[in-house]
Structure of Calcyphosin isoform X1:
Amino acid sequence: MASTNRHEREMLSKAKKAYESTSDPIEKLRLACLSRGSSGIKGLGRVFKIMDDDGNRTLDYNEFKKGLRDYGLYLEPKEVKNVFEAFDKDGSGNLDFDEFLVTLRPPMSNARKRVINEAFKKLDKTGDGNITIEDLRGVYNVKHHPKYRNGEWTEEQCFRTFLDSFDSPDDKDGRITMDEFLNYYSGVSASIDNDAYFDLMMRNAYKLK
């Protein structure tokens, strides 16, 4: 259900090539995240969230700069400053990182957002805005998973691996929010040029009508 290896490879290749040729600081940061995989933007969000000690969901320039560095994204000092200033629209010296992450997502058509939303709602059986292992029971059939079929994994391990694929490697909490789902599939979307193909891929993966 998550990104196929082929889509992941295509996206990494596209992002790395485009990174070398773009001069726009926001696009450069977006591509730097995507070059780390489909969950790259989500992973950056996790780093910022950890740094937000007072829970006000804003970052000053030094926190922003440290967050990029901690995540292993090395932009030129001038580029970091340009990105920060592009988001600090009121000149307050702080940026709202929720708005920042939404803007950082690769652009997607409304048709793609709709089918992603449809898939999320199908998986979120309880309707509480989070997908957990309990939600997946009866919705995600693991019987065709090769590692379940050969006895290597239990049903629980298949569910956990599915959830982990949407998480950054260093912070796996066993649940997926709508924002995390969107951030992930915006990365997958970046490797697929055709809306109809993206829609078909999502409908087949999640058995949507």
Q: What stands out?
A: The CA atoms of residues 82 and 112 lie 30 Å apart. The longest strand covers residues 58-60.
